[in-house]
């Protein structure tokens, strides 16, 4: 657990507990609603991933401000398909979310940086994600292409990002990376997703400029 009384409002970072699950899923839904698509699926991804052997419960972390849950991040084990035939074990993370009224105040970076320190202690090796370099670059992420790792769905993607938790972890390694199957669970079972989403308060799905799907 991490607590602070810095220039930010008093915050605490702690590990998610079962009693937090529904509140975190609702927070995730609020944070991602209509961002990348009409509605969102990230809360269902989180819900299902907790049963995956790749889920890292020690890195399912909550950020609280004055006792209120305002942020969460989830980590999972994954691997790189190296060009020499090896599978290189490493980590990915996401969804990472901050409650809408706490966004752009620095809490996302606080949560990310703290979680990466813990991931390094767990020998996560490196992190690979799809993300915005304007945000993740502040935490020393770089284009994965500069480290010799390609995004399988878009081999020239500059939005595919990497951070070595251990300096030199990727030395001598080239290869490709697939998003974990668990990230597509809503598309694989849309009926189950619809039943799950119906447990939450109704929200309007909107098609907005800039959405990816």
Main attributes of the structure:
213 residues; alpha+beta; Aminopeptidase; seven-stranded mixed β-sheet; three-stranded antiparallel β-sheet; 6 helices; 10 strands; globular
Topology:
Elements: E1 2-4, E2 11-15, H1 21-32, H2 42-49, E3 61-65, E4 68-82, E5 87-98, H3 107-121, E6 126-130, H4 133-136, E7 142-143, E8 149-151, E9 160-164, E10 175-177, H5 185-188, H6 190-197
Parallel strand pairs: 8-10
Antiparallel strand pairs: 1-2, 2-3, 3-4, 4-5, 4-10, 6-9, 7-9
Helix pairs in contact: 1-2
CATH structural fold name: Aminopeptidase
* Oligomer type: single chain
Write down the CATH class.
Alpha Beta
CATH architecture: 3-Layer(aba) Sandwich
State the end-to-end distance.
37 Å
CATH superfamily: Gcn5-related N-acetyltransferase (GNAT)
Largest sheet: 7 strands, mixed
Structure description:
This protein is an alpha+beta fold. It has a single domain (2-187), classed as Gcn5-related N-acetyltransferase (GNAT) (Aminopeptidase). The chain is 24% helix and 27% strand. The protein has six helices and ten strands; from the N terminus they run ββααβββαβαββββαα. It has helices at 21-32, 42-49, 107-121, 133-136, 185-188, 190-197; strands at residues 2-4, 11-15, 61-65, 68-82, 87-98, 126-130, 142-143, 149-151, 160-164, 175-177. Strands 1, 2, 3, 4, 5, 8 and 10 form a seven-stranded mixed sheet that branches. β3 and β4 (68-82) form a beta hairpin. α1 (21-32) runs antiparallel to α2 (42-49). The longest helix has 15 residues, at 107-121. The mean pLDDT is 94.
């Amino acid at each position: 657990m991490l607590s602070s009384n810095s220039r930010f409002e008093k915050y605490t970072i702690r590990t998610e507990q079962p009693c937090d699950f529904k509140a975190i899923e609702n927070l995730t839904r609020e944070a991602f609603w209509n961002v990348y698509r009409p509605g969102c699926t990230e809360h269902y991804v989180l819900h299902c991933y907790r049963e995956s052997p790749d889920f890292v419960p020690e890195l399912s972390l909550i950020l609280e401000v004055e006792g209120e849950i305002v942020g969460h991040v989830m980590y999972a084990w994954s691997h790189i398909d190296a060009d020499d035939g090896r599978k290189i074990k490493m980590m990915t993370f996401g969804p990472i979310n901050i409650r809408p009224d706490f966004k752009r105040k620095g809490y996302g970076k606080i949560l990310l940086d703290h979680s990466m320190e813990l991931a390094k202690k767990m020998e996560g090796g490196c992190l690979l994600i799809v993300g915005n370099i304007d945000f993740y670059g502040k935490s020393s992420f770089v284009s994965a292409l500069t480290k010799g790792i390609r995004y399988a769905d878009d081999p020239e993607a500059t939005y595919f990002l990497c951070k070595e938790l251990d300096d030199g972890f990727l030395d001598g390694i080239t290869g490709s990376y697939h998003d974990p199957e668990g990230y597509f669970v809503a598309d694989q079972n849309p009926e189950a997703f619809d039943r799950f989403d119906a447990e939450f308060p109704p929200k309007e799905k909107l098609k907005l400029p800039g959405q990816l799907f």
